[in-house]
Amino acid sequence: MKIRRPRLPRTRQGQRRLVQAVMAGCVLALLPVTWLFVSTADRLRTTSDAPRAPVAVVFGAGLWNGEPSPYLAHRLDAAAKLYRAGRVKVVLVTGDNSRKDYDEPDAMRGYLKRHGVPEQRIVSDYAGFDTWDSCVRAKKIFGVDRAVLISQGFHIRRAVALCEAAGVDSYGVGVDATHDVTWYYGGTREVFAAGKAVLDAVFRPDPRFLGPKEPGVARALAAGR
């Protein structure tokens, strides 16, 4: 079966319309990214100037042989640094535990404990299947009203925008990352994920799993008073 190749317009008018259509498509594709940059412009910080907040939220970023990937380890290092500096009191780790053999939150908890964060100061969200789910659950399930979010630079703007849309007063810390294949993949992926972020912020769907409210964050904060 032969596949017909698309034919380009032969007339100048047709070619002009094609160029205009391509340009319009590019503009529409970049609008969500522009929204992320504009809406989070004053919400990005570093570990040295992050505002004090009750909670730091660390988003999952994959496991290697059951341990946090290098990208996830960088996020957890930043959370541990903020805790040791007294800028946050509790760390909420949110990630994927949809399978018995894959448990991001417990791996994140173990890493933080080995790096000086007391176990009673770590709260796990086992249903953070994507950024929007993590933000909604932080607000509705764990009662987080204000937080410092921690992720890589290519993701942190989307995290802040979505948590703000979910009702969490948020500041973002974008940790450094080596510009390797994973970094370029993550940056490219964010262009497409920005479109979904706009839809999530506008329509605010329920997360994949909501469940009952959990008192873990409130208990951890109360224990530190």
From TrEMBL:
The chain crosses the membrane at residues 21-38. Coiled coil: none annotated. InterPro entries: Cell_Envelope_Assoc, DUF218, Rossmann-like_a/b/a_fold, Thioredoxin-like_sf. The keyword ATP-binding does not apply. Residues 55-170 form the DUF218 domain. One of its GO terms (cellular component) is plasma membrane. Keywords: Membrane, Transmembrane, Transmembrane helix. It comes from the Bacteria. CDD domains: YdcF-like (cd06259). This is Membrane protein.
